[in-house]
Amino acid sequence: MAVYHAVGASAPRTDALGKVTGRTPFPGDLVMEGMLHIKILFAGRPHARIVRIDTSAAQAAPGVVAVLTARDVPVNEYGLIVPDQPVLCGPGSSKSGADVVRWEGDQVALVVADTEEQAAAGRDLISIEWEELPAVFWVNEATQPGAPQLHPGSPGNQLVHWLIRWGEMEAGWAASAVIVEGEYQTPFQEHAYLQPEAGLGYLDESGRVTVQVAGQWTHEDRKQICHALNLPEGQVRVVYPAIGGAFGGREDMSVQIVLALAAWRTGRPVKIVWSREESIIGHPKRHPMTIRTRWGADRDGRLTAVEATTWADAGAYASTTTKVLGNANLMVTGPYRVPNARVDTYGIYTNNPPGGAFRGFGGPQAAFAAESQMNKLAQALGLDPVELRMRNLLEDGDLMPVGTPLPPGVTIRQVTERCALEAGWKHGDDGWSRPDLAGPAPQRARGIGIGCAFKNVGFSFGYPEQSWAKIELIGGRQIERVVLYQAGADVGQGAHTVMMQMAAEAVGVPLERVRLVPSDTATSLNSGTTSASRLSFMSGNAIRGAAERALVAWQGEERPAVGEYLYRAPATTPYDPQTGACEPNFAYGYVAQAAEVEVDLETGQIRLIRVISTNDVGRALNPQQVEGQIEGSVVQAQGYVLLENLVVEGGRVRTPHLSTYLIPTVLDVPDEIRTVVLELADPRGPFGARGMAEMPFLPLAPAVTAAVHDAVGIWFDSFPLTPDRVWRRLQASEHCRPRP
Amino acid sequence: MLPDYDSLAPATWAEALAALAAQPDVVPIAGGTNVVVGMRAGELRGRTLMDINRLPELHGIRVSDGHVVIGGGTTVAELLASPAITEHAYPLHQAAAAFANPLVRNRATIGGNLVDASPAADTYPPLLVLDAEVELVSLHGVRWLPLDQFVLGVNQTERRPEELLRSVRWPLAPERSAGLHHKLALRKGTACSVMSAAVRVDTDQLGRCTAARIALGAVAPRPIRAHEAEQSLVGESLTEVTIRRAAQLAGQACRPIDDVRSSAAYRRRVAEVVVRRLLTAVDLELKEGAQA
Ligand SMILES: Cc1cc2nc3c(=O)[nH]c(=O)nc-3n(C[C@H](O)[C@H](O)[C@H](O)COP(=O)(O)OP(=O)(O)OC[C@H]3O[C@@H](n4cnc5c(N)ncnc54)[C@H](O)[C@@H]3O)c2cc1C
In chain B, which stretches have pLDDT less than 50? Predict the structure, then answer.
C-alpha cells in the first residue's frame, strides 16, 4: 500500500475547537443590524385550494413590514428534479395549479416584521378562504381510478416507474427448489438533525441577493433561487456557515428561496429560524415503501430468480423520488448473482409529506427486503445465512440484472466473511455455522442475525458527475501556504478537515499549511453536493487534479501558483426503458453487519446488545471520522428499525416534536459497536478511498429482524419494532420459542 | 419562541406567600421544565412568573421524628445524590435515576413534578407506596394532605392558587419492608413513561405480608394505587400464586389510553408483568434480608 503523510491519519477536526466552545456560528446564530424576522404560514391541511387570501390585517399589524404571497414570486415553482412545487401556494400565481396546497407543510405566506413575535402575530391574522379538496394518503388508493389527482402531468398519481427485465423468469422458477415470498413495509423516517432550518438573507456589498443557510449544495440552492426569483446567477450568492447535520434532509429547499425573496423584496436583512415542529413538518422524509418480492434458489442455494415490485409513497411533490427509486430498483435484488429478474418500482404521489433524500437513498428499504429474503431462503434451505450468501455474492466481472458488472474492486465477499468471523461464525469443512450466544436472562431470548449491502458512490444513471477545486500555492522558494477553494459542504461529518488533508497530501506539505475557503458561490465554482457518499471521492479527485496543476505552475515559477481542476467521474448510463439495462454507477462501497439482540418475551422490548460493522472504505482518509460515520450510521439505523415512529394521520404529522418522535439517546446505543474497517483500495478513488458514510445504515434493519427471528422464531417484515408491536406478535404466535 | 412575560423574585417566604395571595395570576416557577415547555406552546399567556428557587424553606432533605422530610424545591439530581433517599426511599431513588436525563434532573423539582401532576409523573408511584404526604402553605395556614388525596386528575391537584408546596414527608419504613420501582419507556434517556410502577411490602417475622402498596403511573388519568391488588396480599406469604394474583388485579386497576407511545391494551398487560416482576424481586430481597 502506498505511504502517505497527511491522509490516513486521524487529524483533529479543524472545526472542533470552535464548536465545542460554542464560538462557531450556525445559521440560527447570525445577526445583522436592522434585521427583520420572517414567520411562515404553513398550509396545515393536506389538500385544499386557496380561494382568497386576505393579508390586510396582517399588513396593518404592529411591526409588520411586508406580507408576501404567491403573487410576489416571479416564477412560482421549484424542485430538484421536477419543478412541481410552488414556492408559496395561493391565487394570483405565475404558475397554474399553485393555488392548491398538497400537504400540510406547503408554504402559503411570509410575514416579515421587526421582531419574531410580531411576525408570528401577523401570521395569525392572515385570513384564508379554503376550498377543501378530497385527499389521498395511501399508495394503493392513490392508484385507483377516481382517486384525487395531485399533478396534471401524472395520471394515476404515478410519478415514476422503473423496471428491469433480465433473463427468463419461467426458466428461473423452473430451476428453483425453493421459493420464498415476502411483503415488506418500511416506515417514514425523520432526519432529526441537531439544527432546525434557519438562515439570514441580505443584499451583500455588491448588491447580490445573499443567503446564508445550511444546505448540502451551494450551487444548486443558487440555481433554485435564481429560477424562482428570475435573477441571473451573478446576482445571487449562497454561503454556508457551520451546518448542524443534514443526512439528505437539506437537499430540498426549505428556507433558501423565501429568505432570498424577502431580502430582495424588502431590501433589508431578514432572518428566519424554524422551530423543531416547523422543521419536522416542513421538510421531506425517508420514503415509506411496500415491497412485494419472490426469490427462488436451487437445491445448492444458488439464486435462480428474483421478482420484486416496490411501491413508494412519494408524498405531495417529486423532490428526489425518481432518483431514490432508481437506487431502490437497482438494490432490491441485493449484491447477488441473480440470473433472472423482473423488477418494477413505482413512485406514487399522495397528500403525505414528500419523500426525499435520506442517508442510504432508497438503499435501506431495498436492502431490508433483499436481506430478509436471503435470511428466509437460508432457513427454507436449511443453510446457514452466511453460507448462503457466500454461494451468491457478486464478484468482479459478474453481471447484475442491469446487464453490466460492478466497477472493478468488488469486495462484498471479503466484508461479509470478515463480519461473520468477527461475530463468531465458524467456518469448517461443512461450511459456515452460527455462533453460540451467552444465555439470556429469565423471560428473555437472545438471537443473532447478519446482513450485507452495497451502496453507490456518486450520482447515478447518466448524471454528468463532476466536481471543481482550485488550489493556490503561496510562497517564495518553498510553499508556505496552500489555499484550497472547494464548495463541498461540511454538514458536520468533518469533510473540511478531510479535504484539507487531501490537499496537504497532494501538494506535499504539512496539514498546518493548508487553509480552506469553503462553501461560497462567490469564491468557488460548482463542487457538487454532499450526498450519495460522494464528497470525499469527488472533491478528493478534484483536489488532486488541482494540486497537480498548481505544482506544475509552481515549477514554472508562477507566484502564487494556481491550479484549477474539474474532475469528471467515469460516465454512467440511464435505465433502458424496455429492459432496464444500464451502467448505473462508477463506484461503490461494501458493508456487512451482524447484530445481537435480547427480546423480553413479556414486554416485547428489544435490546440491541452488540453490532459488528465491517466496512470496506477503500482508504480511511481520516480513521476517526470514518469510525464516527460508521457509529452514527449504526445508531441512526437502530432508531429506524427499533424506535423511530413518525405517526402521520390524514396527512398530518402527529409526532412533530422530539418528545414524541423519539430517536436514540446516548444511553440507548448498543452495549458494543465493533467497527471493522477494511482498506481494499478503489482504483478510481482518491488515494484509494471509497465513499462510506451511507452504507453502514443499510444492513442493520434486516440484521436486527434476523436476530429477532433467531431469538423468538418470528419474522418481522415491517418496523419499527416498538415493544407494543412486538408484544402483539409474541402473543399471537404459537411458535414463540425462547432459545434454551 | 418564548413569549414576553412578567416576573417576580421574592426574597423571603412571607413575600412569596403575600404575592400569591394578592395576585391570582402569579405562577410559581421552580425548575421550569414544565412551565417553560408550556409557555413555548402558548400556555400561561399574560401570567406573572414567580421564581421560588431561592427560598430556603423549599430546600433540604432531613430525617427526623421517624419521618423523611424533603423540601418542595428539592431537585431530582439532589434526590439521586442523597444517601438518605437511597437508604429510606429506594423506589424514589430508582425513579430519580430513570428520570429524564442529567440536565433536566439538575433543574426539575419534586414540587414541580407533583403540582404539574402529569399522569406519567415519575415521582408519584414511589411516593405513593411510601405513604407520602404533602405540605401546602398559604397566608391562611398550613395543611397536610396524603398524596393519594392531593392528586385529582390530568394536571389537577388539590393545591389552591395561593398555596406553595413546601415539603413532602413520609414515615420511615418498618423492619422487614422492601420496595422497588420500575419505569418502562421506549428508550433509556429523556423518555416519558409508557407505564411505571412501584411496590412496597411490609412483612411480619413469619414472612407474611402485613401491608402492601402498589402504585402505577401512566395507566389512568392520574397516578393510582391498586387497592384490590394490595389487599389480596395482606396476610399472605409472597408466592408465585399470590404474586400472580396481585399482579393481575393491578392490571385490572388500570384505565389506560391509546396514544402515540403505545396502546391501552399493551399498557394494561405490561402493568401486570412489571408488578409481577417487582413483587418477585421484593420477595427475593425480603428473603435475603431475613437470612442476613
Ligand atoms: C426533556 C424533559 C424530560 C422530562 N422527563 C421527565 C421524566 O422522565 N419524568 C417525569 O416525571 N417528568 C419529566 N419531565 C417533566 C418535568 O421535568 C417534571 O415534571 C419536573 O419535576 C417539573 O419540575 P420543575 O421544577 O421543573 O417544575 P416547573 O416547571 O417549575 O413547575 C411545574 C408546575 O408546578 C408548579 N410548582 C412548582 N413548584 C411548586 C411549589 N413548590 N409549590 C407550588 N407549585 C409549584 C408550577 O407553578 C407549575 O405549575 C420532563 C421534562 C422535560 C422538559
Answer: none
Return the pLDDT at A738. Answer: 47
Taking CB atoms and an 8 Å cutoff, what residues of chain A touch B190?
665
Q: Which of B257, B269, B277 to mutate to test the interface with A (most CBs of A within 10 A)?
A: B269
For residue A573, give the C-alpha cell.
448510463
The pLDDT > 70 percentage for chain A reads: 99
Dihedrals phi, psi of A495, to nearest 5 degrees:
-60, -35
Residues in chain A: 740
- Tell me which architecture the domain covering A289-459+578-732 has in CATH: 2-Layer Sandwich (3.30)
A7 contacts A497 by C-beta, under 8 angstroms = no
Q: What is the DSSP letter of B142?
A: E
CA within 13 Å, CB half, A249: 24
d(CA A295, CA A622): 40
As beta bridge partners, residue B203 has B209
Delimiting residues of CATH 3.90.1170.50 domain(s) in chain A: 31-133+197-273
CATH of domain A466-568: 3.30.365.10
pLDDT-derived band of residue A734, with 50, 70 and 90 as boundaries?
A: low
> What pLDDT digit, counting tens, does each position of A681-731 carry?
999 999 999 999 999 999 999 999 999 999 999 999 999 999 999 999 999
Tell me which residues of chain A, numbers 644 to 663, contact chain B at a CB-CB cutoff of 8 Å: 645, 647, 654-655, 659-660, 662
Query: What is the pTM assigned to this prediction?
Result: 0.97
- Do A275 and B1 count as a contact with CB atoms less than 8 A apart? yes
For residue A605, the CA-to-ligand 1 centroid distance in Å is: 28
Give, in words, the CATH class of A31-133+197-273.
alpha beta
Ligand 1, atom 47, residue with closest C-alpha = B28
Cell of B256: 389506560
Reduced to 3 states (helix: H, G, I; strand: E, B; else coil), residue A41 is: strand
Q: Dihedral sign, CA of A7, A9, A14, A20?
A: positive
ipTM associated with this complex: 0.95
Cell of A701: 434493519
**Could you give the residue range(s) of every CATH 3.30.365.10 domain in chain A?**
289-459+578-732, 466-568
